[in-house]
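haha ok so turns out i had the wrong file open the whole time. this is the CORRECT one, sorry everyone. sequence first:
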Amino acid sequence: MKFDLTVSVREQAGKGAARSMRRAGKIPAVLYGQGECLSLIASPDDLVKILKSHAGSTALISLTVNGAKSNPSRTALLRDYQVDPVTGAVLHADLFEISMSKPIRVKVPVKVIGSIPAGVKEGGVLHHNMRDMHVECLPAALPDHIEVDATALTIGSGIHVKEIAARDGVRFLDEPDQMVVSVAAPMSDAKLEALLTSGAGAAGEPEVMAKGKEVGAEGAGGEPAKAGAAAPAGDAKGGEKKDAAAAPKAEKKEAEKKK
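then structure:
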């Protein structure tokens, strides 16, 4: 899909100039690539039209650059953009200039087509494993999206990158064995309960070990104290203090008997 976009070269740069531009109803943009970088002024309506298209980042943009010193007509891709988190308004756009005679590498969205997969009808769950794919091609051969028909998929089956039909002039760059779309078996209630139970046990284990280590301090005589022996250990220390305090009294009584 191709779009026309008219922009103008801007002389001022910086945050202050960008804010003034937005207040005036324009959007700051940058065009880079092909050994040049230009600061531009764009219309937000035109940018939003491109963003809302099905092509998205794969849309070819025919640029008319007003005020350019050379080559006012160019071709570009919308490489990146920023939006206001509150209002959703476009704040900035990055455009990448391309040559129609040189291959480019871009991400292309994956579109699942066909009717409801056979495995889903049997209770399976459809997984869209790859939302986009890396491709290399000339700009004229750049597809808007890559279609994957999942109708025939049964439970436990899927479609890999190497199984997708080749397109003229387009080379897939992702690993051939990567799963693009698949149908998985639904998780039974018993398996889910077992998974949750085992997860709870594993989570509680470190806490028990920590307590055991804390309680397992060495008691009297170098023996490890048991968990239930923590309190008696304190009483034993108290008894030693009582015996030490009673020793002088016993010696005094023994001396009086000798007299």
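The chain has five helices and 13 strands.
again sry for the mixup
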